[in-house]
Write a structure and sequence with these properties.
By secondary structure, this protein is α+β, with helices and mostly antiparallel strands. The chain has 13 helices and twelve strands.
Length: about 500
């Protein structure tokens, strides 16, 4: 709803997506546009005459000159941080949110003096802005059922120095408390809008979900959301843009489904992992003989993925570039091995070694996503690995028959292996070079001999023991399954 003003044409409103809304704000310069419309109507009988066309052209020029003087509310904010609480209590679900006022586009709030916001005069407009930019951008669910539209219980303008959103209790007391005294000299673009929404619910112990769409509030938006369920520890979430449906207290099956899906699509989107798989299977191309290789790779990346999630991986800025470079190195190595004609009898062992590196790469994807696991951390990690495994099997089911057909009908096996491996090695070499260049920008120091280093070394030794035991088990399973002397340069039947 637009502020009450005397205008000559119907109010366009903040929701309008028309071209006119880009240049005309309710109550600003609309008389000129109305005059133009009236003039165009008068000139309609002369539209086919030279005089009429000339007059219309003159009016268009005048309108073009007038457009730069039209003032819109303000531009889209660059970086916007939203703070929010969700708390079910009795028959009410409280959604408490804080948004910078500068994110409320298409609104020109009442001001006085030098751009200071007039809080009392802006009350009704603040509520309208809260409905359009916040309430309409949030869908709340109770046990999978979308809740009815929220009601505004309170709005409050806060100073940029206010720290009441440190906890739900402080934030609630602030938004429901008295307004800022007097007429504070608060520039409107520095003001914070606190809003308390209320939803009608059936049970405060139900499972709740939220689908926020705050990305439109700014060029880059970050949402910090905390869920306070009765009798349960608070859960905190932080995400950028629009994360989709977020289960605030996910069940076992919700966590499993989310992370299986995440693992499946991650392996399909990860070109480096796909190229590594391709290098693994080029000289093999037999599903039975791929079982040890794929299993070893999966076991290895599962170990390092879980270790990273449990805090056993280095938490330094240089570690992600190092891992990315090593992943590229693994692709280059496998491709070169295929070119020279490698003995595949121990390819499962090579897959295991490089799988450890790829596991750390997977962990970078899960750093922000694990917050959606709720109380099912280990289950979600295992589900992610299951999804990755399903994705790998899906890729292999497509790649293996294609390779077999291509080596049988298009190009000889040896020549095809060299060509494909060379192309893969060329791409991975560039990735490795870029990673090395990035890694050289960091300065490395010898760690201090203190208790923190001792604890890190202890965790590292424990990880090595787990790895040694795993390799021993894999050797018992796969160590003697491969025929000695078989190389990637030798042809073999597809179904071997």
């Amino acid at each position: 709803m637009c502020p009450p003003m005397a205008i000559d044409v119907p109010c366009l409103g903040p929701r309008s997506n028309s071209i006119l809304a880009k240049y005309f704000v309710c109550g600003k310069r609309l008389r000129s546009f109305s005059t133009f419309v009236q003039g165009a109507t008068i000139l309609a009988p002369y539209r086919n005459s030279v005089v009429g066309i000339g007059l219309v052209a003159v009016m268009l020029v005048l309108l073009t000159v007038a457009i730069p003087s039209v003032s819109v509310a303000h531009d889209i904010a660059s970086d916007v941080t939203i703070q929010a609480f969700v708390k079910p209590e009795g028959q009410r679900l409280y959604f408490l949110v804080r948004v910078p006022l500068e994110a409320m586009q298409d609104y020109e709030f009442p001001q006085f003096d030098r751009g200071y916001i007039d809080i009392e005069a802006a009350d009704s407009m603040l509520r309208d802005a809260a409905i359009w930019w916040i309430a309409n951008a949030v869908d709340m669910y109770e046990d999978g059922t979308r809740l009815a539209e929220a009601e505004i219980a309170a709005v409050h303008i806060s100073l940029p120095s206010d720290r009441s959103f440190r906890s739900y209790e402080e934030a609630f007391a602030n938004v429901t408390g008295p307004p800022l005294p007097g007429r504070p000299q608060l520039p409107w673009e520095q003001a914070l809008l606190d809003v308390l929404f209320e939803y009608q619910i059936e049970n405060d112990t139900a499972r709740y979900s939220i689908d926020p769409k705050f990305a439109r509030l700014g060029i880059r938006t970050t949402t910090v959301l905390r869920f306070n369920a009765p009798g349960k520890p608070a859960r905190a979430y932080q995400f950028s843009g629009d994360p989709g449906l977020v289960n605030l207290d996910p069940s076992f099956f919700q966590a499993v489904f989310r992370f299986v899906e995440l693992g499946f699509f991650h392996i399909l989107d990860g070109l480096d992992h796909l190229l590594f798989l391709l290098c693994l299977v080029i000289p093999i191309r037999a599903f039975r003989r791929l079982v040890p290789v794929v299993t070893s790779f999966t076991v290895a990346h599962s170990i390092t993925l879980i270790a990273s999630a449990l805090g056993l991986a280095p938490n330094s800025l240089w570690f992600p570039p190092l891992v990315e470079m090593l992943i590229a190195l693994s692709i280059v190595y496998m491709a070169l091995e295929n070119i020279v004609g490698a003995n595949i009898g121990r390819r499962w062992l090579i897959a295991f070694v490089f799988g450890l590196v790829h596991g750390f790469g997977f962990s970078f994807v899960l750093r922000e996503t694990l917050q959606f696991a709720g109380s099912h951390l280990i289950t979600s990690l295992l589900a992610f690995n299951v999804g990755v495994e399903i994705g790998q099997l899906f890729v292999l089911a497509l790649v293996v028959p294609v390779l077999a057909w291509g080596f049988r009908r298009v190009v000889a096996e040896r020549m095809g292996t060299i060509l494909l491996s060379a192309l893969v090695a060329h791409s991975a070499w560039h990735w490795m070079s870029e990673g090395w260049t990035q890694l050289r920008e960091y300065t490395f120091y010898w760690p201090a001999l203190d208790m923190e280093l001792f604890e890190a070394m202890t965790r590292f030794v424990m990880l090595l023991m787990v790895l040694a035991g795993t390799v021993w088990l894999l050797f018992l399973l796969f160590g003697r399954t491969e025929k000695p002397g078989r190389t990637g340069s030798e042809p073999r039947p597809v179904g071997e």
